[in-house]
Structures are given as structure tokens and as C-alpha cells.
Design goal:
15 helices; 15% strand; Rossmann fold
């Protein structure tokens, strides 16, 4: 077992040693590569074969999710029709540690004829790929972490890191924000927090608990039971809210020997917290937490009651 720990630590130390050299290699070519991506009117096409291809898929995915439309193109498939997906408005990232992948020997002349910028991620700085590329990102290593020097380890880690550096540098240059990221991750928790608005989640129509100013506590209690939101909005004839009455208000009233025949306007909380329908759902959650409440009526720009929201609605929508 001690040997297993030793092997694992040795690999990590070797890969970290090689990776530590990358920051000093970033220079004019890295800037050029970023500018190619930032200025392209098309997509970023990423290609590589073997382990480089696996890493390339991740780089393409990272670019796409951080504001740079991108896709992965397998070199072999490119030679059998997929090159047709590449347009003159695109920029291409070719990944090959040696820089001598045979497939690229056929692809590079076609890209050159189309005047498509090529970014090379390679350790072969004097290779055909590096020579043909307009920007070369150096991922060269002294030693693979594989003890036989055969399996790509340090080199594939360097490739991944360089791809991340490229994607995140471009993302920051674009001013890409959380909201932008959420749009490409709508099913994730971040998407739920940043994309959902109160009006998307709130209860509407007959599910809105409300009574008129002339209602009694009994009327409000029945409405509380019917809707299960946790509060009732007390409204004027024009649907403007004058107050709210909650489950807690009902309990406190009964403890003070109030009656169910009392007029609701005499025992309600006025004006009570109200949530604008155009707020982001996460803003509503913050209001609930800040004011230690679990429900609130929802109003439009004119202050009219249009919905109701409670903490359970937010949690069910993935807002927490």
C-alpha cells in the first residue's frame, strides 16, 4: 500500500513540476491566440487525435460555455467530410504534442487556402504544425510522469492547463458574467438562481391567496387553508394590497383571545413585504432570509397583486 501512495505522489510531483513552467511561456503568441478567438465572426474549431483529442473536447466545451462558440472536430472525420463544417470566419485550434500528426498534414494546406487562422498547442516547436500556425502555444515537457515515458501524462496535463488559460483569458476579456454563464447552463443550480425570475415561479390565478378589506378573520383563515401559501393578501377593489395576514398572525390573534369574526383589516400587518414580479428569484430568497419571512405577495409595476411566492416554491425551483 505504501508503494501505491509513493507512485501516486511521484506522478503528481512530476506533473506539477512540468506545469509550473507554463506561466513564463505565455507571451506574444498567447496574446495573438486570444485575439484570434475574440475577433472571429464564426466558431472556434478544436481538433486533435488520441489523448490530444480527448483534451481537445474538453477545451472546446470550456470555450463554448464561457462565451466562445466552439466545437470539436475529429481529424480523421475531417478528412472524410467534416472539414465542410469549417468556414472562412472560423479559427482553428490544432493539438498535437509532437506537431507531426499525419492527419494535420492534409488539413493544414486546406486551412491555409481558406485563410483561416491556426492556433497550435504543441511541444514540437520546430514541427510542421508549429511552422504552419499563426500562434504557437508551447506545452513542451522534459519528462512524462509515466515511468516508461510512453503514456501522455505531463504533456496532456499541460495541454489541459493551456486550454483552460486560453478559455478563461478570453472569457475575462469579453467581460463574461455569471448571467452569461448561466444561459449555457440553464439546468444547473447556477442557471436556476440567475435565470429564473419571480414571475416564472410564483403562484398565479386561483392559487393566489387574497381577500377583500371587508373580509373577516374566518375568511382569511379559510383562504390560508385553501392555498397553503402561508399568507393572505388583503386587497382593495383595484387589486392594490393594503396588508397581509399570515399563519403566524392567526396564531397570535387567537392567543390574544381575538375571534374569527374580527374584521381582517383590524388585525392584518400593514403594508407587509411585497415582492416585484421582475425580481430575480435569488433576490426574493435573499429578502426572505434577511427579513425572516417565508412568503410574500407578488406585485407588478403598478403595485397590483399578480401572484404569491413562498420559500418552498423557491426550493422546488432549485433556488437555495
Amino acid at each position: 500500500m505504501d508503494k501505491l501512495l509513493q507512485y501516486g505522489r511521484e506522478l503528481l510531483e512530476l506533473e506539477l513540476h512540468e506545469a509550473q513552467k507554463l506561466p513564463t511561456r505565455l507571451g506574444k503568441d498567447f496574446i495573438k491566440a486570444c485575439q484570434f478567438i475574440l475577433s472571429t465572426k464564426g466558431k472556434v474549431v478544436v481538433s486533435g487525435i488520441g489523448k490530444s483529442g480527448h483534451i481537445g473536447k474538453k477545451i472546446a466545451a470550456s470555450l463554448a460555455s464561457t462565451g466562445s462558440p466552439a466545437f470539436f472536430m475529429h481529424p480523421s472525420e475531417a478528412l472524410h467530410g467534416d472539414l465542410g463544417m469549417v468556414t472562412e470566419n472560423d479559427v482553428v485550434i490544432l493539438i498535437s504534442y509532437s506537431g507531426r500528426a499525419k492527419e494535420f498534414q492534409f488539413i493544414l494546406p486546406i486551412l491555409a487556402a481558406m485563410n483561416i487562422p491556426v492556433i497550435a498547442i504543441t511541444g514540437g516547436l520546430d514541427s510542421p504544425l508549429a511552422t504552419a500556425a499563426q500562434a504557437v502555444l508551447d506545452i513542451s515537457i522534459e519528462k512524462e510522469a509515466c515511468p516508461m515515458g510512453l503514456a501522455p501524462t505531463s504533456s496532456s496535463t499541460n495541454t489541459l492547463l493551456m486550454g483552460d488559460a486560453l478559455a478563461i483569458a478570453v472569457m475575462r476579456a469579453r467581460g463574461f458574467k455569471e448571467e452569461d454563464f448561466a444561459r449555457s447552463h440553464p439546468a444547473g443550480s447556477l442557471g436556476a438562481k440567475l435565470l429564473n425570475h419571480v414571475k416564472d415561479i410564483m403562484r398565479k390565478g386561483d392559487l393566489i391567496p387574497k381577500v377583500s378589506q371587508s373580509a373577516t378573520v374566518l375568511d382569511a383563515m379559510l383562504e390560508l387553508s385553501r392555498t397553503g401559501v402561508g399568507l393572505v393578501a388583503i386587497c382593495q377593489d383595484d387589486n392594490k394590497i393594503v396588508g397581509v395576514f399570515t399563519d403566524g398572525d392567526l396564531r397570535r390573534l387567537l392567543l390574544k383571545h381575538g375571534t374569527l369574526q374580527d374584521n381582517i383589516i383590524e388585525v392584518m400587518t400593514s403594508p407587509g413585504y411585497q415582492i416585484p414580479e421582475n425580481w430575480k428569484a435569488v433576490e426574493a430568497l435573499k429578502t426572505f432570509n434577511d427579513h425572516n419571512i417565508t412568503a410574500a405577495p407578488v406585485v407588478n409595476n403598478q403595485g397590483e397583486l399578480v401572484g404569491a411566492l413562498n420559500i418552498h416554491d423557491l426550493h422546488q425551483a432549485g433556488i437555495s
